[in-house]
Amino acid sequence: MIKENEQGILIVVSGPSGCGKSTLDQKLVERRNDTVISISDTTRSPRGDEVDGVDYNFISTEEFEQKIKDNKYLEYAIVHSNKYYGTPNEHIDEMLSKGKNIILEIDIEGARKINEKRPDAVFIFIMPPSMEILKKRLIGRKTETKEQIVERFKTAYKEINEVSKYNYVIVNDDIEESVLKMNSIIECEKCRVDRIEEVYLGNQEEMIHELLVDFDKENYKEKKES
Ligand code: ADP
Ligand code: 5GP
To answer: Tens digit of pLDDT for each residue in 176-211?
Structure first.
């Protein structure tokens, strides 16, 4: 009856550092083999057990700036401590046209740029249940220095003020529930009427003719039974 647009969905996920974006995105892609997380370039150093080419592509400032000149980024921003972070545009359209949903885990500035370039994207904001809990998660992750944690915590206030610019907000209290909500958002977005390319019903006259024939057969049976 319906031919749908088979394009994947571009999903932007933002929220303050430590709110749980990576945790939720990771769990979501484990569940959905039609969804992938875009790997960003960054000029910051790897932390904890982060792996180059998996968590980020860790590159030099010179290389990043050359890629900006060469127009290799869908968006980029200077986030914490004057470090560059950017979404390589390579593969994005190819993956979307193959029906893969792509998650961009990016800051509010990057999200604003995507909104201008790709109004078809879906914007999800992950909110911590409270600032107290955010603080605990940032400290508990044990991947940043005290200064880095303070910087991220300060930035969180500015970021949370941008929530109304997003389409959806998820308060990440329980991980399982939050992943279910992300999954539901994707399912809802796939049901949007603007994804319909064609509605085909068959020939009306023929269908009505068939209906009358079917009806007569049913009627005949009823008479026979009574
Ligand atoms: P982000 O990617 O937003 O910076 P992370 O995914 O790294 O955040 O999560 C920060 C910390 O909080 C991690 O230690 C993670 O295990 C933990 N965490 C994430 N979501 C929850 C949750 N719903 N409940 C408790 N701890 C969580
Ligand atoms: P972290 O250093 O904690 O990994 O990330 C810091 C911030 O940079 C987070 O808000 C994260 O979402 C954001 N970020 C990561 N990759 C990108 C990117 O490609 N573009 C933009 N604009 N922000 C990014």
So the answer is: 999 999 999 999 999 999 999 999 998 999 999 999
- H-helix or E-strand spanning residue 99: none
Nearest Cα residue to atom 22 of ligand 2: 110
148: its two tokens: 């880095």
C-alpha 7 to ligand 2 mean position (Å)? 25
Sign of the CA dihedral running 210, 216, 220, 221: positive
Q: How far apart are CA 90 and CA 179, in angstroms?
A: 27
Q: Does ligand 1 have an atom closer than 6 angstroms to the CB of 19?
A: yes
The gap from C-alpha 70 to its chain's centroid, in whole angstroms, comes to 26
Helix, strand, or coil (residue 171): strand
CA of 198 to the centre of ligand 1 (A): 42
Q: Which amino acid is at 175?
A: I
Global confidence as pTM: 0.92
**pLDDT tens per residue across span 113-148:** 999 999 899 999 999 999 999 999 999 998 889 999
Ligand 1 atom closest to Cα of 24?
6
